[in-house]
Amino acid sequence: MKYSAISYVWRGLGLLPSTENRWLKIKQDERGDRINVEVLCHAAAASLHRGIPHIWMDRLCIMQTNTDDKNWQIRKMFGIYQDCSLCIVLPGGMQRLVRLDEETTWIHRGWTLQEVLAPPEVHVLFEWRLGSGEARGGEGKLQHVQEVMIKESAMASMPMILEACTVGYLSFTSTERNQAKPYMVKAAMFSDIESHSYNDPPFWQPQRKVLAPNIAALTVAMDLEGIFDTTAKNYAIWQSSLMRTSSRPVDMVFSIMGLFGVTLDTKSFSRNDRLCATMALASEILRKREEASWLGVAFRIAPCRYLSTFAAFPQTSVAGKALVPTKEGGQQVSHLITNEYPYVDALCPMPHGSMDEHGYLKFEGKAVPITRLLQKAEGSQTDQAQVAPTRPSVITAVDGSRWKVRKENDSLEQAVDSGARPEVTGGAEAFVVLLGWFNEYYPGGTPAHDANNIRAMLLQEHDPEGRCYHLRSYVYLSQRTYSWVKSWKEYPFLVGGPDTFTECDGTESSSSELVEIVVPEARYPFPSSSRKDVTLRDQVIRKSRWAVDQRILENMLQSPPMERLCDYAESNTPIHYLG
């Protein structure tokens, strides 16, 4: 049976003023928004446009108040979306359709990740009065925008809309009017709220949040053009999941297990047992001889104190954004993530191995022993890099700690080989373990500059008798160290903890609500065409600032010439074309 599955958020955007609609209320379901019958009609029309006569929607097809039915359905959820003919994404929820330039919370919800990665085809349904046409996001390929209801709605492929939100604009050419060049329509449906500053050039346009990590991660995970390998896509799944949230912490595991070909017994875990469920999922993935692709998904977030190969788990909620505690306060996970993904062919695969019942990852990896520098040694890391850029003697980790690299004939390495444990100045034994080569993501290209692409884990011993280590931080190394890291010796490691698994209650989340702090964002300079160091990011920012709000563009194009001129004067916003 052919059917379309609906992907939406239970608590979406509210209605606009003076909007009259018919509503569908689900009995014994008080957690979600009311269902607007008009939105359902648009979804049905979109499905029929593709010749698909049925629709599946969780709130209509799952008995939400029946625990047995819900547990059974959760185990089957991946298959439901995998077997559908089309997934229709309603980013704003079931109360109304949203425009391309409206921010939604869809990309922050846990279950929506699986809902767009499992189906064979995914389209976004949105409010649209510009008719059918051809469009692209950034430098992506040209794709079709299909009008669904005349002058009301349209749908387009999810990858294209993601690319548009990544760079901040969609270039659109209508098939219904003569256009010399494409219109640049602002795209913010899956991105964060933009930042405003009077310094942003042009002064009437705010700075766009382009190249957002949550959008980039989902784009890489979908990878319909076949650019990325399995390692990069699995890494992106873990990364995207970390930036999402759910009312039940354990659902953050259940919502992605099917993507890795794993089915856990959902009855074996309580609603807050994200930690144990994560360990169970990781164990099953490794048992299938797959890589530990979760390593390094958040270089700037402190490791989990019970399961250190994973980043600390965010606090989850039904309608908020994923937050992690920092020294300053709660911060959005997406603000601490980088758009970088492993490139296995450039250096080495990510670690394989196994995970024991205590959450310890057992694997072998190329490594070099190091010693903690308790006081800043004479000469900075920059000095060391200038003296020996291909083989640094001092390394600074992401957490700010500084370490001296031991020579091959040093007593520590000999001691590790023999099983003895000598006294080490500055603390316990520690290693820098090669993780791999990482490239920055950009739609349609890869930056060529040296971005310290080689990444490594900093492991520190906490149990000498069991030879157990925990992941303390990460290390960035220059491309120039390539030959050096390739020459590192292989060592066996057992990494987990450092706190014992029985000391936790299954979740790291604090009992108190995290309060998000406001972090001042970097103001990007408007790049001049005469500059020689204009980067891909500069180019994206420059173009996105000239994108036009969708509603302004629609009003101006559909008004008579004289009214259009008045609208132009009142809006003080010019229409710009992609040139």
TrEMBL record:
Residues 3-92 form the Heterokaryon incompatibility domain. InterPro entries: HET, HetReg/Transcr_Mod. Pfam families: HET. This is Heterokaryon incompatibility domain-containing protein. It comes from Gloeophyllum trabeum (strain ATCC 11539 / FP-39264 / Madison 617).
